[in-house]
Amino acid sequence: MAAVIREAAALGPGLRAVWLEAPEAAQAAVPGQFVMVEGGPRRITRRPFSVSGIDREQGLIRLLVRVVGPASAWVGGLSPGQPVGLHGPLGRGFTLPPAGACAWVVGGGVGTAPLLFLAAELRRAGGAVWAALGGRTADEVVGADELKRSGAGVAVATEDGSAGERGLVTTLVERRLAGGGPPPATVYACGPRGMLVAVARRALEAGLRCQVSVEERMACGVGACAGCTWPDGRLAPDLALRRLASSREAPGEGGGGGPLRVCRDGPCFEVVRA
Ligand SMILES: Cc1cc2nc3c(=O)[nH]c(=O)nc-3n(C[C@H](O)[C@H](O)[C@H](O)COP(=O)(O)OP(=O)(O)OC[C@H]3O[C@@H](n4cnc5c(N)ncnc54)[C@H](O)[C@@H]3O)c2cc1C
Ligand code: FES
Question: Which of 52, 57, 229, 263 has a 20 to 30 Å separation from 271 between CA atoms?
Fold first, then answer.
C-alpha cells in the first residue's frame, strides 16, 4: 500500500511527528497497532512504528519518530507530498476497558506514542485517564501537553530532574498506588523493558490488570520470518505475556510461557504471573 506524507513537524530534538494519508489504515487501526514503513533513496526495508494518532475523517495516521539511525532519520525527515510504502495496521492492539472506565497509561520516552492514541480513544469513550511519563531528560518526555489538552491527569519524572520530578516514572506509579484513590480498570505501559517489568510487577501486586506493548527488532512484521520471536514468552522470570483478543481476531491459545512472535501475537500483551 502506498501512502503520502500530509504533514511533518519537529516536536523536539530528534523527535518528529509525521502525518500520512492512509485512509484504509486510519479506518482500521486500533490503539497499540503498528505499521511497517518502507522505501526511501536507500530502499530501506520495512521498519515498525506505532500508530500514535488518527484522523478518521481526513484518512490520516500519525507516527511519532525518534531518530536513532538511518531508517528513523529517513522516516522522520520525510516532507509533505512524498510517497512511502506502508503495511498495516499490524499486530494486536490493546484491549480497551468498558466505556467510561478509568485507566492509567505509563510511557517511557517514545514508548508513549501508542499510548497517545489509546488515551484519545479512552477519553472519547468518556473514560478518566491518568498518565505517568518518563525519560532520561525533558527532551525524551513525549506527549505531556497533548495528554493534558485531552483532559488526562499527567505526572512527569525525568532522571536528571529537567522536567517534572527527579527520578523514575515507576516512582510516580508507586505513589499513585499508595495514594489510595480509585483504582484503574487497567494499567497500560510502553517503554524500555526494565520499566515494563517494574510497572507490571507493581500493578499485579496491587491486584490490577496490566497490558504492555513490547518492542523487538522486526523484519517482516506479519509473523512470517520468526525474527521477532520471544522463545519463552516471558517479560521477566516471574512475568509471562499472554495474547490479547484483538478486535478482529479470536484470542490465541496460550501465551503465558510459550514462544511468541511479537509482531503477530503482540506487540500488546496482558502480563500475568508466570
Ligand atoms: C512494534 C514497534 C513499534 C515501534 N514504534 C515506534 C514509534 O512509535 N516511534 C519510534 O521512534 N520508534 C518506534 N519503534 C522503534 C523503531 O522501529 C526503530 O527505532 C527503528 O526501526 C530503528 O531503525 P534505524 O535504522 O533508525 O536504527 P538502527 O540503526 O536500526 O538502530 C539504532 C539503534 O536503535 C536500536 N533499535 C532499533 N530497532 C529497535 C527496536 N525495535 N527496539 C529496540 N531498539 C531498537 C538498535 O539496537 C540501535 O541501538 C517501534 C518498534 C516496534 C517493534
Ligand atoms: S518480524 Fe517476522 S515474524 Fe515477526
Answer: 52
